[in-house]
Design brief:
By secondary structure, the protein is of the alpha/beta class. Helix content is about 50%, strand content about 10%. Strand 15 (about 490) and strand 16 (about 500) form a beta hairpin. It binds adenosine-5'-diphosphate and zinc ion.
Amino acid sequence: MTNSDSLQQALKQYFGYETFRAGQREIIEASLAGRDTLAIMPTGGGKSICFQLPALLKSGVTIVVSPLIALMQDQVTALKENGIGATFLNSTLSNRENNQRSQAILNGAIKLIYVAPERLFAEQFLDFLNIVRGKMGIAGFAIDEAHCVSEWGHDFRPEYRQLSRIRQIYPDVPMIGLTATATERVREDISQQLELKQPYIHVASFNRSNLYYEVVPKQGNEQSYTNLLRQIKRLQGSGIVYCLSRKRVDEIANRLQEDGIEAIPYHAGLGAKEREENQTRWIRDDVQVMVATVAFGMGINKPDVRFVIHYDLPRNIEGYYQESGRAGRDGEDSHCTLFLGYGDLETIKYLIAQKVDPHTNEPLEAEQRIAQQQLRQVVDYAEGTACRRTILLRYFGENFHGDCHNCDNCLTPKPMEDWTVETQKFLSCVARAKEKFGSGHIIDILRGSLNKKVLQHGHEKLSTHGIGKDRSLDEWRQLSRSLVHQGLLTQTTDGYGILKLNDRSWEVMRNQRNVLLPIERDATPSPVADQADVSERRIDVDILFERLRLLRKNLADEQEVPPYVIFSNATLSQMSVDQPTNRKDFAKLSGVGTKKLEQYADDFIAIILEHHQQYPPIEPTEPNQSTKVLQESITPKSKLSKASTQRETLAMYENGLDIDEIARDRNLKPATIWTHLVQLVESGYAINCDRLVPPERQSVIYEALEAIGGDSLRNLFDHLREEYTYDEIKIIRAIWQNEKDPL
Ligand code: ADP
Ligand code: ZN
């Protein structure tokens, strides 16, 4: 048996990580004990290690069933980088390749075999598997993307249905199912379809705390596009922009290209080859932005996606959660932005109305109804004023406490009003109408309507009829929406959206709970990083990060793999802060296991040493300082973007561009570029200013500073007889202050 310390050692040795993420250890221990397991974790939760580590520690071979060839290749590449014997068998391989791989398996060089389900049940493969069982044993089956087995999921694959056959052929080999699908129904279905035997089930929280959620109103086509462009420039890093139609994808990708963003399109209208090429270019960081329809993204493993922008409305919340969830798998801060446009709403409604039975041409009423309700939920999310996480997670049955500090609604909260009395009116109206109606009808009753439906049910006789005339239709709608979001009222998801009371509703009715309602503010663009404080992160760290990143890209290109396979951004980030200069220290980085130490330490250390000639290392004053700097510098996203925008300015300046050129290139004002440079100097970074202020002018400013001090810019400006600009004075003053009073 493996005790917990040796598990942790194995994690470090093979994958380079110090600690397990939530749930991983328990799942791995259950698997090692030979139990069937069901692991439900959000994207980026770290599911792969849950079956990979047991595969390495058990004797025999583990079979991994995975639906997508791209996914298999990705995982196998990553495993090989870590020095782990893994291979995949699928229809893209020639007979010769397949034979070679089979031989490698029988030679015992392989611990994990990835196969597509249809392959698994080919007679030839089953025979082969039998030989493997006899020779080295089968340690387990791992079913990745296990929701594909369920018709209730969003990605049903009939081939997956056959998987129960494994149980008949190998009744005693333990099986683990893994998925990021959150709904209860799908979870149950997986257990049943895979015939898991009393499985250990782990359901992780679906909260992705590193994602910042925001909603931006669309204001006309041009303005919206400008907002999009600004957003992309501000956020930086790899990103996805989702659009509703192919036409829009092409249009946006073109415009972004014209505006100097490296963007490429992806949609079902492109040829298979072009799609694949575009995908690879994006994964390898040759281009920054993928503009795509929702056809893009399933099975994309890229962990360092920094933003996902929905330029058009998504069709349902689950889809939104999964698509936006492609950001930040590596756990680093990332942005999820949704553009809310009422025009899109009409387009989607139109598309829904087109849903007809292909044989009879009759409208598919049930489907239309459900699609409409799902769309309403998206709008409710977008218009909602509560914490975005609370709203999203409620959809997956989680009661999140709100106040996440990482969504627009939490960071710029709207003023709250006490609506307890109105809520009590609303809830009692729901009760009196016997919990059989949706919000529209309840509001009609409250507002004293005598429409047909009200009369038909005799609801004009209810004591709650007309007791809510003092509030507008909009106000009641907002209350109703908010009650559902806050979990104070339950809404059915069958397409009818019937309101039902729950335990929390009764608490309000019994006066045990007050209800606060956020008051809608005018739609203003979300707060952006530009207003945030200046980063604490040392600028030399940023520069080193860029250098390490360049090395990573070169190594990745040589091997034709995506950069993140070599090291994650988190590892690079830690490397640029800790700046290890020997193998022993290098091995301590999270993400550096035995194999990667061997293969890469020297190259990266060489860059760090070179960097030290220019920026001598700062001795840590306390042992934990480096991790502290790292945390401070990467935690608040606002700070990070500030640092990176300065970093970009600096890099361009050091490459010889002048202020106006940088400003033009970055679509910023020259004054902003000046500010970046002044702030860089203020944070202790030595910039050669001769190109900004000619040396003879510098000395005059110095003299002025010595004469009257640096307290008042205005006095300096006057003292210099208005012949020197404020920018010139500011930057020289910053240098002068550094010299007088080094940081
Ligand atoms: P999922 O399949 O759940 O979406 P992955 O298995 O791809 O997630 O893991 C997401 C990222 O997290 C990967 O880059 C992986 O290397 C990293 N990761 C997984 N487990 C850990 C851990 N214990 N410590 C640090 N990073 C981890
Ligand atoms: Zn929030």
